[in-house]
Amino acid sequence: LTGEDYIIHPLNVAYILTDMNADANTIIAGLLHDLLEEDRCTKEELEENFGSDVTHLIEGVTLINHLNFSGDKQSVIANHRKILVGLSEDVRVIFIKLADRLHNMRTLWAIPTTSQKEKAKETLDILTPIASRLGMNHIKGELEDLCLRYLKSDIYFSIVEQLNQTKKEREELVEKMKEEVTSILTETGIGHE
Predict the structure, then answer these.
(1) What pLDDT is attached to residue 166?
(2) Which residues of 10-45 are buried (b: 16+ CB within 10 A; e: fewer)?
């Protein structure tokens, strides 16, 4: 939907997993995570070529992807979280799912607005708390930022604008400080860069 070659998505999932310091089999499973779901190969072919560990991880992600996480009540949302975690016998399945969703959220602009809001809400309600519980604060933070962008875009862009304004002020302060330090070092004859 983004207009990029399909391989860009699994590559980005693998890059995200690499940033998480995932093991080799998790990264391989990240590269191949959609193969079973899209019927591009069989479980037997995966196992023959990549082993049972990678196949098991891909099966776990495929199982999670078939779940329907709709509902607004907090009890329903909490139950969905428990189901997702319970179905994942191996925490690496959750890592792959989080990496997959993070890349999907980064490219959410490519789908219709209604779907954007649904995905963002599901991510905020179900996956972001799981990332938090796993101590994956960088993933959690980026997911929250992206969810805010699609759920409350006016607030998101207001915050971005304010941050950009303060960034300019910070950069000006740093430049002024560099000039003052350079002046002092030059006056005292100290070489510097």
Answers:
(1) 85
(2) bebbbebbeebebeebbbbbbbbbbbbeeeeeeeee
